Amino acid sequence: MNVLVFDIETIPDVDAGRQIYELGDLPDEDVARVMFNKRREQTGESEFLRHHMHRVCAISVVLRQANSVKVWSIGDETTGEAELVQRFFDGIDKYTPTLVSWNGGGFDLPVLNYRALKHGVAAPRYWETGDDDQSFRWNNYLSRYHARHTDLMDVLSGYQPRAVAPLDQIAVMLGYPGKMGMSGARVWDEFLAGNIGAIRNYCETDVLNTYLVYLRFEQIRGNLSEEALASEHELLRNMLRDEDKTHLTEFLQAWA
Prior knowledge:
By secondary structure, the protein is α/β, with parallel strands linked by helices. Helices cover 50% and strands 14% of the residues. It has one domain (2-254): Nucleotidyltransferase, domain 5 (2-Layer Sandwich), CATH 3.30.420. It has a five-stranded mixed β-sheet with strand order 3-2-1-4-5, with helices on both faces. Strand 2 (54-65) and strand 3 (68-73) form a beta hairpin. It is globular and about 60 Å long.
């Protein structure tokens, strides 16, 4: 088993906004406000920015490999976006893991693609479609219907937009913690306040929810028996205890 579950948190790319909307030396917070207002004018209601207008501020992963499971956020609180994105794709190039996400095909990966483009991040394994490795012709990271990247939201909804569900609600429905004290809508405010650590911690709890949903998905696919699922749960619980970090302990305590 070599599974990498991932989640990103983003903030407005104020540098791009400043250039695109010709905002000169307007402060970052004001640039973001213009970006949100422009987006609301376009949509009629939502301020959620288009993919290319996001900047990555955190990437968290769960790695299930051999007899271990680990959760962490790439880099540290001072790591720049280019390095975060580079290290994420470097991991794919090195390990060729099965990627797992919740709406990763609809949001996380497109954002990462644009940021890789911005920073010139090379990721040949990720972009492979069979030219150099024939096994990628029928199973690669880019095709929506291939298994090297499993977007749980897509698969469980049967690829029907009207059937998609929020990760938080699915996690809670299954007895998992769900959101814990923050949401994606608060990330920009937390970033402005300098609370990068809180953003990274929130991202880690989100990716843990995704991993737990994935384990249940593996059960309904017939890949995990009830006993094997219980064993995976215990392995994860032990890791969370051993990490002895406040947000992970709180996640463990909230886990029904």
